[in-house]
Amino acid sequence: QKEVEQNSGPLSVPEGAIASLNCTYSDRGSQSFFWYRQYSGKSPELIMSIYSNGDKEDGRFTAQLNKASQYVSLLIRDSQPSDSATYLCAVKESSNTGKLIFGQGTTLQVKP
Amino acid sequence: SQTIHQWPATLVQPVGSPLSLECTVEGTSNPNLYWYRQAAGRGLQLLFYSVGIGQISSEVPQNLSASRPQDRQFILSSKKLLLSDSGFYLCAWGRGGWNTEAFFGQGTRLTVV
After folding, report:
1. In chain A, whose CA is at the least distance from the CA of B99?
2. CB count, 10 Å around CB of A104?
3. What is the predicted pLDDT for the residue at B79?
4. Which of B75, B51, B66 is nearest to A97 (CA)?
5. What is the pLDDT of residues B12-29, one digit of tens each?
6. What does the angle CA A102 – CA A12 – CA A62 come to, to the nearest 5 degrees?
7. pLDDT tens, B41-74?
């Protein structure tokens, strides 16, 4: 059973700080990685995708991928109270079946 | 642009009753389609996914089933609901291919009583 692991948190950071969210995965052949944000009671929304080793920046968000270590992370700079949500890491299975596996999510709390 | 519709938004059903949740996608063809379930305070559990009409892969043994009668329609069903079927059911679509994201519908919150 291929797995995606995240620390459930909660991760608490003060407003303006950098929040760092981490994810590990077991499928060594996976090529596609995604971060979703889910507000309480709502459906997940895609915020970042990354396919190559290294960093990918989009506004205040930076996704980092290290395939050798099977590790994906999401950095949120200048955290705002509106960033308080659960962040879900998702990995597409290497068998190209289209199967997309999610981690349990990390709850982020940004305190004013 | 592509949109995904999922209904109903909330549902309260008695134990032993049947279930039918429907999801449709507009603005694309031959999408990958997914059903996930999220128990309270938990992550997303993949229930079924489909890469084409009539092609359904089941991930978790349970009393649920899925069907894809049309290219952009995905249905989740049960003949007899259990208390443990309560949860937040999410339909998602994605383009075929190894590097494509999935986009979610608004979800159905099911409470079995």
Report:
1. A32
2. 20
3. 96
4. B51
5. 999 999 999 999 999 998
6. 55
7. 788 999 999 988 989 988 886 789 999 999 999 9
Q: Which amino acid, B113?
A: V
Give the best residue of B95, B98, B99, B104 to mutate against chain A (max A CB count within 10 A).
Answer: B98
Mapped to the 3 state alphabet, what secondary structure does chain B carry? CCEEEEECCEEEECCCCCEEEEEEEECCCCCEEEEEEECCCCCEEEEEEEEECCEEEECCCCCEEEEEEECCEEEEEECCCCHHHCEEEEEEEECCCCCCCEEECCCEEEEEC
- Name the nearest CA neighbour of A89 among A31, A4, A20, A12: A4
DSSP A83: G
- Positive or negative torsion for Cα A46, A37, A25, B91: negative
Judging contacts by C-beta atoms under 8 Å, the chain B residues touching residue A96 are 98
> What Rg do the C-alpha atoms of chain A give, in angstroms?
13
Which residues does chain A have within 8 Å of residue B103's beta carbon, measured at their own beta carbons? 46
pLDDT, tens only, A16-63: 999 999 999 999 989 899 999 999 999 999 999 999 999 999 999 999
CB contacts of A92 in chain B (<8 Å) are 98-100
Do the chains contact at A100 and B90, CB–CB below 8 Å?
no
Residues with Cβ within 8 Å of residue A39, at least 6 apart in sequence: A85, A86
What are the structure tokens assigned to A2, written together? 């291929």
- For residue A73, which amino acid is it? S
